[in-house]
Each structure stands twice: as C-alpha cells, then as structure tokens.
C-alpha cells in the first residue's frame, strides 16, 4: 500500500498539472511566445528520448529474463511468468513508440519553426527610425541635403515575461488542447511630413524647412492615413502592411493537439520493467501462482484462505514494492537498476534538438 505522504504528494502533482493546463494564458509578446514554443519542443524531445531509452532498457531486461527462465531447472519456474509478461509488454511498448514517434517528431518540428518565427519578429521589431531632407533656401527640393544614417540590427532586451512563461511551460509539458499562441505578424509603415520641427508645419523650400521620413517595423498593426499630407507638421503614414506573416499559426498548432496528446498518452504507457508491481498486477503472474504453484484449477474461485496463500507466494517470490524486483532479480541476473529521475539518461539516439537560430539557418 502506498504511504499516505507519497499519495498526497502525487495527488498534489496531479492537481498542479491540471491547474497549470487550465490556467494557460495567451502569450502576449513575441519573446514570450518564442519561449513557449521552445519549452514545449524541448519537453516533447526529452519525453521521446526518455521513452526510446526506456524501451531499450526494457529490451535488455526481457532478454535477461528469457535467458534466466530458460536456464532455470527448479519447479515451479517463478521466472517464467516474468519472461512471458516482459516479452508481451515489450512488443506493446515498441508498437506504442513506433506509432507515437512520427506525431511527436512532427509536433517538435512545428514548434521549432514557430519559435523561429517569433524570434525573427523579436529581432526585426525596431523603434521608429527617422531622417530628413533639409531645405536650402532655393526654389527646389532637389538641392536638399541630408545626413546619412546606418540602419542597425535590433538587439532585443531581456524578455519581460520570462519568469511568467517559465511558470507556465518551463518546468512541465502543457497538454492543453489550446496552447494559446498568438498570431503575430511583422508590420511595416512609412510616414512622411514637411515640418520645420515636428508638429510645426513648413512654409516653403527654406533652410528651416525639412521633409521628414519615418520607418516603423513592429508587431503592431499599422494602417495608411488619409491624404493629403496636411499643414500641421505631423507624420502621415503613406505606406503600411504586414511584410512577414505567420506560416504556422496558432490554429495549425491547436488542430494537431488532439493527435499530439494521444501520442503523449501512448508514450506514457512505456514504463519500466524493473518494478515488481508491474509484474504482480498482471493476470499472467497471478494465474501462474494460482494454477502452477497452488494447483488450483482454471475457473475456480479462490477462497479467502487461498487468496491469502496466493498473496503470500507473490510476496515471497516477487515482493510487493517496486524496488523488490531489483532486490530479488536485478543483481542475480545482471539486470540494470533504472536511473533515478535526477540521473542523466543514456541516449542511444540523439534527437535533432536545435535552437531557433540553428533551425533558421537550415530553412
């Protein structure tokens, strides 16, 4: 029986996970959305790598159990049901892995590309840049002078929503059907005015008069403004529009979430074989004790006394706690102990986990 404290802890984790999914809010900025996409892609990649390693470890355990059961001469052969269960479950787990992997890999790719889009927006969004032509006092603007300036790459500062997003998706894999990404585009606008100083209209082609131009790049929707230029010295936006659309939209992500969640659930059926309770919960083992050890015919209902005897045999030969497997069979048959959650897994195959920048370079 599970200890009350452990039970409460697991219940707390389950409730916390449900609450996190239920309270997932829309990411509001490109940097927050980039973090969300990167976090979720990383969690999916780690999950898949972990399950690949788990199937690999379970396959080794199965082979050792089969070899041990085949060489066991004692009757009854208590290793036989373990080998049978492991063989069947390994097949099921391999099928689950093969079925779920393409869906998970596709989801990782979508999220990586989505992160690249948000990162690009964040790098291209700049504060409005302006410059001006200066009148000369003559009759035409063709002799206007100007100071050349160099447009520089935008270096975004720290993401203001970093701690918020770490709480949302930094530590767990969100499995909500709506991951609340925001559809963000890069918008551009070109504005002009004729003014001595901004908001002070010019009066002609004099040395005090200037034609000003302003370039805007950002995530805010920009619209052109009504003609004519006017005489108030204020900018009028003469061109505007979205110049970078989101190819993978929030709808694209969400419409695949049902399949992704189903694939995650399949992967989560892949559990360790180095756990006595994994075996003792199977009918194959309990029927073996009933029929082969106690000699009770198939279909016979066990009396309370027989049930106690069956439980005693199971406890004596297989244990009642997950760690009993390692104590009874691990060292004896060289079956490796499963890594603790904090341990780094041996990875037989390194998945392609790229940062958004690396992904962008390969597109």
TrEMBL record:
Q: Sorted alphabetically, which keywords does the UniProt record give?
A: Signal
What organism is recorded for this protein? Trypanosoma equiperdum
Q: Where is this region: Disordered?
A: 331-350
The answer to whether keyword Signal applies is: yes
Q: Which domain of life is it from?
A: Eukaryota
Q: What is this protein called?
A: Variant surface glycoprotein (VSG)
What residue range is the signal peptide?
1-22
SUPFAM superfamilies per the UniProt record, alphabetical: Variant surface glycoprotein (N-terminal domain)
